[in-house]
Amino acid sequence: MSDILAVNAVDVTKRYGALTAVDGISMAVAQGEVYGVLGPNGAGKTTFLRMLFGLIRPDGGTLQVLGRTWQRDGTRALDGVAGFLESPRFYPYLSGRVNLELLAGLDGGDAPTRIDRVLDTVDLTGRDRDKVGGYSFGMRQRLGVAAALLREPRLLVLDEPANGLDPAGIRDMRALVGQLAASGLTVLLSSHDMGEVEQICDNVTIMRTGTVVYHGTIATLREQAPEPAHRLSTSDDQSALALAAGRPGLTVLALDGALAVRGSLDAVDAYLSAVVRHGLALRALSLQEAPLQSLFFMLTETSPETVPGSLDRSPTGARP
Ligand SMILES: Nc1ncnc2c1ncn2[C@@H]1O[C@H](COP(=O)(O)OP(=O)(O)OP(=O)(O)O)[C@@H](O)[C@H]1O
Ligand SMILES: [Mg+2]
User: Which CATH architecture has domain 229-289?
Assistant: First the structure.
């Protein structure tokens, strides 16, 4: 892979009147990786991605996409970049294929010769002659990816590609992104769901109201995640609660007709064994919230300063 970064943002800021939508963000996306921009509603994800496409200009900082800048290279800064923002839009009364034909015609060159291939890549062959108005949400998202692939991008930018998809749709989108990444494409995607991002991204930037609260690998993030919390139901929760007393590294609380159990895997295992040894039956044990999900909420809902060891605003922090 070339040394040129797919995205090199340094201290990028975008303001709308008094509101700073993106506040001094730095981000380094290497070519060939799958990079996630994660954050709750209003964090500034779409605003940041809009700047990559040159749809809006930063008020401060510098932004290079595949080594090019809008100031120096104008529309050539878009060479090699394709994707969609918010959700892809098509003519609903035309088929998926005709929509792609129109787009390929606009792009010119040999884009029309790629239509069959991109339809096959996103698994829409067979439905390509149906009207887009009759497509499911997931099919429209996949058609959006197909439209982007017509341009043979080196950087694919997908704004919330899994938004609104059901679990099967999310799985398909994840597989598609994985397949595209395996072919060498750089993928920058945004999401508000940690679960979506953790399985496909190498590195993430987590945003909260325009600022970065975490830069780094998913692996590093996982190390910082709190211990998992479980919901436990037994044949006698009162007695089970009493058995938790004095166990190191374990917190058990009565909660909504069940017990909330938090601790390391070892501590939870030992506790469950004790519960069973005491003749109580286990009726249900489920993970309440994935540890990474908990960390995501901690990072994006509380003041960033309250989360130790997670702040690294430098883009190089993405590669410890
Ligand atoms: N054109 C605009 N004019 C004024 N304010 C805007 C504009 N675009 C975005 N904003 C504001 O900037 C902030 C960031 O918005 P943005 O759409 O980038 O967030 P997001 O992270 O993409 O959120 P979501 O998850 O809801 O898509 C929000 O407070 C939003 O209201
Ligand atoms: Mg958005």
Answer: 2-Layer Sandwich (3.30)
